[in-house]
Amino acid sequence: MPEVINISLSPQANHLATHFYNTQESYIDYSQSITKSPNDPDVHFKPTLSYDKSSSNYTPRALIWDFKGGFGSLGQFEYYQSANNDQDGNNDEWTGTIEQISSRPKINKSEYQIALDNGQHLPPLNNDSTKYWTDYSRVLFQPNSYNELHNWEYDPVEFPEGRLSLGQERKFEGYEVGVSEWKEDGKGIEFLENKYRNMLENCDGLEGLNIISELDSSWGGFSSELLRDIKDDYNPKTTIFTWGNYNGKRLEQLGNREILSRIRTFLELQRNSSIFIPMSTPQSLPSSIDPSSLWQTSALKSLVFEPFQTLVSQRENRVSLSTIADNLTLGTERRIVSNVEVQFGEENLNFADTFFIRDRGAPHTFSKSTVHKPSRQSSASDIVELSEKFQKKSSLDDDSKKRREVDKSHVDYISKIPVSQSSSFPTFLKSSDSLKTSLEITTRPKKTLQEMKTFVSRFVRGDERENMIQELEVLAEEYVFGWEDSDGSDDDY
Fold first, then answer.
1. Is residue 399 scored above 60 in pLDDT?
2. Residue 402: predicted pLDDT
3. Partner of 216 for a Cys bridge, out of 206, 247, 385, 491, CB 3.0 to 4.6 A?
4. 355 within 8 A of 280, measured Cβ to Cβ
5. Which residues contact 143 (CB under 8 A, 6 or more apart)?
6. Architecture of domain 2-355
7. Are 228 and 269 in contact (CB under 8 A)?
8. d(CA 232, CA 425)
9. Going by C-beta distance under 8 Å and a sequence separation of 6 or more, which residues neighbour residue 345?
10. Where are any strands of DSSP class E within 326-434?
11. Taking 80 as the threshold, does the pLDDT of residue 183 lie above it?
12. What sections of 372-439 are H helices per DSSP?
């Protein structure tokens, strides 16, 4: 059985992971046999017996990193505490040390969570009631899923970017800060040897990993070290998708320290990933979306993340993560996705536009993969019609075959599982909205990689300078199509 482990690092990443698992949980129909479900929950969840062994639970195959205080009221959850107090030895989830999640100061459980606990009618959510991802999480995580940066604290209003504990005015920013945090007191090695290894042992056949993190904070350096150690010591051949949230700023809008931090994070993450996807909140948003709300903006990003993950877990027309990656890279070293689009209703959103510098002319597309999901209003015949539409698109008549070949670089995936909207999801999606999500690899990274190389040659000193320049040059060559003039950078920093 294929399984996928998700590792999310930072409050922003955890909001995205929460939306994903809530959506996956909504696919589970407890009134019928799980084997009849169109979505196989065992891919993204671990099936376990409930505490009293009266029913089955599904806990995410997830590892979560957050700041001290980032878990909201989770430290007070009685179902979390029970995992550590099972005197009869009934807990088969975890026999090692359980992370003690701190809460600073005491944070009250949200009304939504109280209603979930008591099986009551769920109140509507809003920006004020979703400051923490734990305010609206509908799933129970295993005790060993939780990991906390004890040296750094979080408040969604006062210091949303995280700050050094004890009230010191130092933000969690800079690549090197994240690297140091990973290495401090063997923290990273202990995490991998205990919690990550335990998660691997609970998989029969690991399909792949998703790393969800940030590019423009210290989480980037922290994640880079994590990913490198996983790649070197645990899963050298496993398919890894890295989803890098960035702050939406173009390279030229950053200060020199910010540019260097982004370059270092970017190089490390893409190097150790099968596919690297940068994402930010789109510049143009639906009118109902508040860009300051992580609950809302991460819900939008989940419309990129979730459809591709559901391809792996759907029973009909299942697609492996490695196949998705292969259809994008086409046997090359082009791992960087440069166009990330979602279409629903009248909206057409781009999540990676500002990460790449625009070059002259329209970019060439090397590969494009698109997932089509029907609306919640779609009938069975509508879904069949959708499938047949793309079957016909890829089937050419004899005359056409003589004129041209099938373009294998453009792949359309069909998911017959309709767009789901959990009660925890914002209401910007209509029941009549179908969903089209695309990942595209184009020539756009070339110009950005050249600009990065120019910056490194001017401002970086020491042993790493030549290695970074050489790596950026080699990467840029991968994104050249046809004959092009050598194009140096004219930009100054």
1. no
2. 39
3. 247
4. yes
5. 80, 83, 84, 93, 94, 98, 99
6. 3-Layer(aba) Sandwich (3.40)
7. no
8. 37
9. 429, 430, 432, 433
10. 339-344, 347-350, 365-373, 410-414
11. yes
12. 380-393, 398-403
CA–CA distance, 430 with 421 (Å, rounded to integer): 9
Cα gap 185→178, rounded to integer Å: 14
* DSSP label of 479: T
- Contact present, 456 and 469 (Cβ < 8 Å): yes
In this structure, what DSSP letter does residue 51 have?
A: T
d(CA 400, CA 117): 60
- Long-range contacts, stretch 390-393, CB < 8 angstroms, 24+ apart: 390/414
| pLDDT for 32 | 78
Joined together, the tokens standing for residue 398 give 């004899």
Nearest C-alpha neighbor of 231 from the set 263, 270, 288: 270
Say how many C-beta atoms besides its own lie within 10 A of residue 325's C-beta: 18
Identify the three-state secondary structure at position 444. coil
Mention every residue, 6+ apart, whose C-beta is less than 8 A from residue 39.
Answer: 24, 27, 28, 310, 313, 314, 315, 417
Q: pLDDT by residue (tens digit) across 28-56? A: 987 777 888 899 999 999 988 766 666 77
Structure-derived torsion over alpha carbons of residues 58, 63, 67, 68, reported in degrees to the nearest 10: 60
Pairing relationship of beta strands 205-214 and 159-164 according to DSSP bridges: unpaired
Q: State both tokens at 421.
A: 């909207």
Q: What are phi and psi of 162, to 5 degrees?
A: 85, 145
Q: Tell me how far apart the alpha carbons of residues 321 and 237 are, in angstroms, rounded to a whole number.
A: 12
